[in-house]
């Protein structure tokens, strides 16, 4: 489970214009249609092709919890790709992204400053170029640590340095012990 990746996905999913299918049969029919057949859907979900066919025909209505989670995740990953792309493009070009977090934040700075890590609750609007960096890194398969570094760099510039108006000698921001993290487009 990726805290940053899942947070970015959740922010994009809020832009959906229609709700994703809820029932197991509807979700399975959608996946079969998207993947082009029951065999590929079965391989992706790690179940038998016959089981997929039973879900499609509504002969099975309630999946086991692990299958239900995989099914929902795969449907949401593919749901409304154009709306998803538009939301990402808008955030990366004009809108930016808002990060709301409660985490331990500190920084590396010259001797004589109070750079000790503190637990902080921040809600900060990040400029569009940071939204673009986050989404590009996520699409490129970046790890959670790499996404965390991009977010820390954004917080350094926007929150700690106030876009260059203060703390010019600030070198690095430490973004650790995340209790809560949410993104908003």
List the helices and strands and how they pair.
Layout: H1 3-13, H2 24-35, H3 38-45, H4 49-56, H5 65-78, H6 81-95, E1 97-108, E2 118-126, H7 128-139, H8 144-160, E3 172-184
Antiparallel strand pairs: 1-2, 1-3
Helix pairs in contact: 2-3, 2-5, 3-4, 6-7, 7-8
Give an overview of the whole structure.
With 185 residues, the protein is an alpha+beta fold. It contains 8 helices and 3 strands. A 3-stranded antiparallel β-sheet has the order 2-1-3. Helix 2 (24-35) crosses helix 5 (65-78) and helix 6 packs antiparallel against helix 7 (128-139). The radius of gyration is 21 Å and the shape is elongated. The model has no long low-confidence stretch (mean pLDDT 89).
In short:
The chain has 185 residues and is of the alpha+beta class. It is elongated.
User: Distance N terminus to C terminus?
Assistant: 21 Å
| Alpha-carbon Rg, integer | 21 Å
Largest sheet: 3 strands, antiparallel
SSE order, one letter for each helix or strand = HHHHHHEEHHE
* Shape annotation: elongated
Relative helix content: 40-55%
The total strand number stands at: 3
Count of alpha/pi helices: 8
Mean pLDDT: 89
| Strand composition percent | 15-25%
Poorly predicted sequence stretches spanning 5 or more consecutive residues: none
Task: Enumerate the strands of the largest sheet in spatial order, edge to edge or round the barrel.
Answer: 2-1-3
Question: Class by helix and strand content?
Answer: alpha+beta
């Amino acid at each position: 489970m990726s805290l940053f990746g899942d947070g970015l996905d959740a922010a994009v999913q809020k832009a959906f214009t229609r709700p994703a299918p809820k029932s197991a049969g509807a979700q399975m029919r959608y996946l079969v249609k998207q993947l082009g057949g029951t065999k590929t859907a079965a391989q992706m979900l790690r179940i038998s092709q016959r089981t997929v066919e039973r879900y499609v025909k509504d002969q099975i209505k309630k999946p086991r919890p692990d299958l239900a989670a995989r099914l929902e995740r795969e449907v949401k990953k593919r749901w409304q790709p154009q709306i998803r792309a538009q939301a990402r493009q808008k955030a990366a070009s004009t809108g930016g992204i808002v990060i709301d977090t409660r985490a331990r934040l500190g920084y590396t700075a010259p001797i004589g400053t109070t750079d000790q890590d503190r637990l902080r609750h921040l809600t900060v609007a990040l400029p569009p170029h940071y939204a673009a960096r986050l989404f590009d890194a996520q699409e490129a398969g970046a790890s959670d640590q790499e996404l965390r570094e991009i977010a820390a760099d954004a917080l350094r510039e926007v929150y700690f340095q106030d876009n260059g108006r203060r703390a010019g000698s600030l070198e690095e921001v430490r973004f650790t012990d995340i209790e809560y993290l949410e993104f908003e487009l």
